[in-house]
């Protein structure tokens, strides 16, 4: 709640600072619900990008969600009619919680997954809406607000490390990012980083299992 409401608030402020109507924030948070992509979308709007360009860029930005989904296939197998929403609502933060917090055996897992996902979207939706309303009525200096998303990812990474206590996956992610940053254009950095990290993870799979 503390992460998503504040981050959503920052998105709402940033959106209206570019003179877009406040109601776009709740609409985007309800039907798109993709934190990083919603921040990026503001730049798409300003650049007047075409639908094809937006679709391609969105695919690359959110490609990482595919790998998250693959790792949750077993967990979501028996979720029935809730599965479509669980797929739609899977974000970086929700994935981090699902893989960090141990399942409570006293709870029905499918409803636990549903409410965890739904509450996360509610926090983001509420924060974005309030941020847009406040930003429409009060002047703010929004310089640096886009870094709030990066800050949240850093916190999530720290929590994952504390839970996993295995430095290899984090070292692989860091090395892959540095290589991509040094040798690949910025618009292709994400997909190259993910692909390289996957190759290295498969290569060190046995060592990871032993850990």
Task: Give an overview in words.
This protein is mainly alpha-helical and 211 residues long. It folds into two domains: 2-163, no CATH class; 166-211. It contains twelve helices and no strands. The protein has helices at 2-17, 24-31, 35-47, 51-61, 64-71, 83-88, 92-100, 109-137, 147-164, 167-183, 189-203, 205-210. The chain is globular, with a radius of gyration of 18 Å. The two termini are 32 Å apart.
Describe this protein with a few key phrases.
single chain; about 210 residues; 2 domains; mainly alpha; 12 helices
Task: Please summarize what this structure is.
The protein is mostly helical and 211 residues long. The chain is 74% helix and 0% strand.
Secondary structure elements and pairings:
Blueprint: H1 2-17, H2 24-31, H3 35-47, H4 51-61, H5 64-71, H6 83-88, H7 92-100, H8 109-137, H9 147-164, H10 167-183, H11 189-203, H12 205-210
Helix pairs in contact: 1-3, 1-8, 2-8, 7-8, 7-9, 10-11
Low-confidence stretches: none
- CA-CA gap between termini: 32 Å
Radius of gyration: 18 Å
Number of helices: 12
Topology as a string of helices (H) and strands (E)? HHHHHHHHHHHH
- On the 0 to 100 scale, the average pLDDT is 83
Instruction: Count every beta strand, where a strand is a DSSP E run of 2 or more residues.
Output: 0
Counting helices, strands and paired strands, the structural category is mainly alpha
The tally of structural domains comes to 2
Tell me, briefly, the overall form. globular
Helicity level, as a percent range?
over 70%
Sheet of most strands: none
Strand content: under 5%
């Amino acid at each position: 709640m503390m992460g998503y409401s504040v981050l959503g608030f920052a998105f709402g402020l940033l959106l209206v600072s570019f003179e877009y109507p406040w109601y776009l924030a709740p609409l985007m948070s309800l039907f798109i619900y993709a934190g990083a992509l919603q921040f990026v979308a503001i730049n798409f709007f300003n650049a007047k990008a075409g639908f094809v360009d937006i679709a391609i860029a969105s695919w690359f930005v959110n490609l990482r969600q595919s790998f998250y989904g693959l790792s949750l296939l077993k967990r979501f197998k028996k979720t029935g009619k809730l599965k479509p929403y669980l797929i739609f609502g899977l974000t970086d933060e929700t994935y981090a919680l699902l893989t960090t917090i141990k399942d409570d055996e006293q709870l029905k897992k499918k409803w636990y997954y549903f409410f965890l996902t739904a509450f996360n979207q509610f926090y983001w939706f509420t924060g974005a809406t309030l941020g847009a309303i406040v930003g429409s009525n009060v002047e703010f200096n929004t310089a640096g607000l886009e870094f709030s998303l990066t800050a949240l990812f850093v916190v999530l990474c720290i929590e994952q490390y504390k839970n996993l206590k295995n430095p290899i996956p984090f070292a692989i992610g860091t090395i892959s990012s540095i290589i991509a940053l040094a040798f690949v254009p910025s618009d292709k950095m994400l997909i190259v980083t993910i692909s390289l990290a996957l190759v290295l993870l498969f290569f060190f799979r046995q060592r990871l299992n032993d850990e």
